[in-house]
């Protein structure tokens, strides 16, 4: 189902001339205020850190697919608004889509937004990346069905949305900006790992 929320909406950045060699996709969770203002993913503070780290890893962002699991900017940037527990969904009279598996211990994607996962699948099928960077727990779940970014980051996992592609989960840049600057070298190493798997 497709949501009709009235929330700001930001499309994926898709290279006009897809590269023949390196084929990398970078997926975040949902656009923030600056992304909604400019209509492009990852152009705010998180985007600047992402750009710097991609450059340090030798990755040309302009040649990558860049997008978010959810193209809507939720109020207050609360990604939790895309999910609900069975109890909360029932109380609020909303449907959940259990086909995508649990998010965390007890949440499920709301049926109003599960079409975003179908859209993500279609975008990946058409760009055909070999490797996909999952920035944080939301894209890690969407792309692999697995939960737990701290245990999963820096690993190489199969992508449930695109047969043959691998997913490299890493930190969301906003996590690093929120006082975890010591994790920057790890973030860089994860991006280098993804680049090495994308060629
Ligand atoms: N955070 C995200 O997850 N995506 C963006 O596009 C910007 C910030």
From TrEMBL:
Record-linked InterPro entries: UDG_Type-4/5 (IPR051536), Uracil-DNA_glycosylase-like (IPR005122), Uracil-DNA_glycosylase-like_sf (IPR036895)
UniProt keyword list: 4Fe-4S, DNA damage, DNA repair, Hydrolase, Iron, Iron-sulfur, Metal-binding
Gene3D superfamilies from the UniProt entry: Uracil-DNA glycosylase-like domain (3.40.470.10)
Keyword Transferase set for record: no
Domain Uracil-DNA glycosylase-like: 15-192
Domain of life: Bacteria
Keyword DNA damage recorded: yes
PANTHER family: TYPE-4 URACIL-DNA GLYCOSYLASE (PTHR33693:SF9), TYPE-5 URACIL-DNA GLYCOSYLASE (PTHR33693)
Name of the protein in its database record: Uracil-DNA glycosylase
């Amino acid at each position: 189902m497709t949501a009709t929320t009235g929330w700001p909406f930001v499309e994926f950045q898709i290279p006009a001339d897809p590269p023949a060699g390196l084929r990398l996709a970078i997926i975040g969770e949902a656009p923030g205020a600056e992304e909604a203002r400019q209509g492009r993913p990852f152009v705010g503070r998180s985007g600047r850190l992402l750009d710097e780290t991609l450059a340090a890893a030798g990755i040309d962002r302009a040649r990558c697919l860049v997008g978010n699991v959810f193209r809507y900017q939720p109020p207050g940037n609360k990604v939790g608004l895309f999910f609900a527990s069975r109890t909360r969904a029932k109380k609020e009279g909303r449907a959940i889509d259990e086909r995508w598996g649990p998010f965390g211990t007890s949440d499920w994607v709301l049926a109003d937004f599960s079409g975003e996962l179908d859209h993500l699948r279609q975008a990946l099928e058409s760009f055909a990346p070999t490797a996909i960077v999952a920035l944080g727990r939301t894209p890690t779940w969407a792309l692999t069905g697995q939960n737990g970014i701290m245990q999963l980051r820096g690993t190489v996992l199969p992508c449930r949305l695109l047969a043959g592609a691998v997913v490299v989960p890493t930190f969301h840049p906003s996590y690093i900006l929120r006082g975890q600057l010591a994790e920057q070298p790890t973030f860089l190493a994860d991006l280098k790992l993804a680049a090495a798997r994308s060629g």
